[in-house]
Design a protein that fits this description.
Layout lengths: L2 H4 L4 E3 L4 E2 L4 E4 L11 E3 L4 E8 L6 E3 L4 E8 L4 E3 L4 E9 L8 H4 L2 H11 L18 E3 L4 E2 L4 E2 L4 E2 L4 E2 L4 E2 L7 E4 L4 E5 L8
Parallel strand pairs: 1-4, 2-5, 3-5, 4-6, 5-7, 6-8, 7-9, 8-10, 9-11, 9-12, 10-13, 11-14, 12-15, 14-16
Antiparallel strand pairs: 16-17
Length: about 200
């Protein structure tokens, strides 16, 4: 049984979309799952992705004609992908910080993870305190192309038709019809909305 079959009540896709054999959905705290769809995928997609929900929160919505070559979504808020989007392999899209940036607020995280790991057979987030972990939605507009090993961080909107270069780290919004690259990602080129290749 695949993870999508196991969690069928929390996942929805159109019949014309194909899930790669390596695609996976993971709930780290299954006893807290809410009665709703955590992942929704549109028509004519080719999906090789890991969908990870470390708590009862989070949602991933993917549009039509989307090709994901090896993407990890980690959601506690909301990640939305438009239509006609292409993503390569090794990509991480994470809508939260995982830990507080402030030591006083995260000083007990490692001890709690260690205790959970022992108590819950390797699951180290069962009793995680999320109250100081910042999360913000991510929106990837239609017609976007994201290169391999890129990382998209919380609160980012990638504008329509934009291209994100390989191994880029995107921490700020990306304008429509631009190419960004680097760590942190910056604009390296502006694109016309339409260009003939002839």
């Amino acid at each position: 049984m695949t993870s999508f079959q196991k969690y069928n009540n929390y996942f929805q896709k159109e019949d014309s979309t194909f899930m790669d054999r390596y695609a996976n959905i993971r709930f780290d705290v299954p006893e807290k799952i809410q009665n709703r769809k955590y992942v929704t995928i549109g028509e004519k997609g080719l999906i090789n992705a890991n969908f990870i929900f470390e708590s009862e929160k989070g949602e991933v919505i993917i549009g039509d004609n989307v090709h994901l070559g090896g993407v990890t979504f980690i959601s506690r808020n909301r990640i939305e992908v438009g239509d006609d989007v292409t993503m390569a392999w090794g990509i991480t899209i994470d809508d939260h910080n995982s830990h507080s940036i402030y030591w006083e607020e995260r000083k007990n995280d490692n001890a709690r993870c260690y205790e959970d790991y022992i108590k819950y057979n390797g699951n180290n987030v069962v009793s995680k305190d999320w109250s100081n972990v910042e999360d913000k939605p991510i929106v990837i507009k239609s017609k976007v192309w994201i290169g391999f090993d890129a990382t998209i961080l919380k609160g980012v909107t990638v504008g329509e038709g934009a291209v994100v270069g390989a191994k880029s780290v995107v921490a700020k919004n990306v304008e429509p019809w631009t190419v960004v690259a680097g760590n942190p990602a910056v604009v390296v080129k502006y694109l016309p909305e339409y260009k003939s290749t002839k």
